[in-house]
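User: Hey, quick favor. My workstation is busy. Could you predict this chain's structure for me?
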Amino acid sequence: MGVPELLQMIAALGVIILLANYLLKKLNQFQNSSSHVIKVLERVPLSKNSSLCIVQVGSEYLLMSMTENQNEVLKTFNEKEKEAIQLKLAKKGQNKQGLIEDSFLSTVLSHAGELIKNKTQNQSSFNKERNR
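Assistant: No problem, here it is.
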């Protein structure tokens, strides 16, 4: 095998890689452009097995607690809060900063974290008393 054949193989491999990259991008755009009813707008891990999510279901925005064993709606956002979230998402798209940096959302998420801790403590206390 000579140098011309080797260069031809390298060029063919390059064309194949570029074509595969282009097709994967087009396929990704096709999948993302389809209308999804449920979208996870933001996910913040609280621990190894749990996280808080802001989820859009149709026109509603929900704050959800997600664990391995349970998913729970903690809060349904009102119109004013939905507008604030939409503004933060627009800013996030422009400057790639996360939602958590905003004081409103970090306040909401910190309160939600406290709700989860209290609920977990109450549930474990209830289970202990039930097992006695």
